[in-house]
């Protein structure tokens, strides 16, 4: 048997989607987002295949209480452009957290996912809520804790 071949596992489509819940309260933004991106890509599973969606859904609660280190609260800028001349708008982490706290976590995770159709499909499997309440109790999510 030739051992120079990469093993690609066959996906079992009968598997039920897995649901996880992560509390972002007093957690560092980068640490929590890398964990979420790794789980979404399926790198924590036994049969990881890079081009397959492993049907993992993640619920993130308390997004308004996520933290950053140092002076990033005031120095980190989020930019968006309207497409019109002179339409560039910037706002700091603090301003965006007061206005739309979910967008901070969503934007960080989206940058860590693969670019292309698979990354767009994985991004739809993230549910971010700014408080502790979420409508996914029926899925019985498993709790993941950091430190």
Automatic annotation (TrEMBL):
Family (UniProt): Belongs to the universal ribosomal protein uL13 family.
Keyword Membrane: no
Keywords associated with the record: Plastid, Ribonucleoprotein, Ribosomal protein
UniProt KW Signal keyword: no
Pfam families, per database record: Ribosomal_L13
Alphabetized PANTHER family for the sequence: LARGE RIBOSOMAL SUBUNIT PROTEIN UL13M, RIBOSOMAL PROTEIN L13
GO biological process: negative regulation of translation; translation
GO CC annotations on file: cytosolic large ribosomal subunit
GO molecular function ontology, one term from the record: mRNA binding
NCBIfam families in the cross-refs: rplM_bact
Family matches, as InterPro entries: Ribosomal_uL13, Ribosomal_uL13_bac-type, Ribosomal_uL13_CS, Ribosomal_uL13_sf
Species this chain originates from: Antithamnion hubbsii
Record's protein name: Ribosomal protein L13
């Amino acid at each position: 048997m030739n051992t120079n071949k990469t093993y690609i596992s066959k996906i079992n489509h009968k598997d039920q989607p897995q649901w996880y819940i992560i509390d972002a309260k007093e957690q560092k933004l980068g640490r929590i987002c890398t964990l979420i991106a790794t789980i979404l890509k399926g790198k924590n599973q036994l049969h990881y295949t890079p081009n397959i969606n492993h049907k993992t859904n993640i619920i993130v609660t308390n997004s308004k209480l996520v933290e950053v280190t140092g002076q990033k609260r005031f120095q980190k800028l989020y930019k968006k452009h309207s497409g019109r001349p002179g339409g560039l708008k910037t706002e700091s982490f603090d301003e965006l957290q007061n206005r739309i706290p979910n967008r901070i976590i969503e934007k960080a995770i989206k940058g860590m996912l693969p670019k292309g159709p698979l990354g767009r499909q994985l991004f739809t499997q993230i549910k971010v809520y700014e408080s502790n309440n979420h409508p996914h109790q029926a899925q019985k999510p498993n709790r993941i804790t950091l430190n």
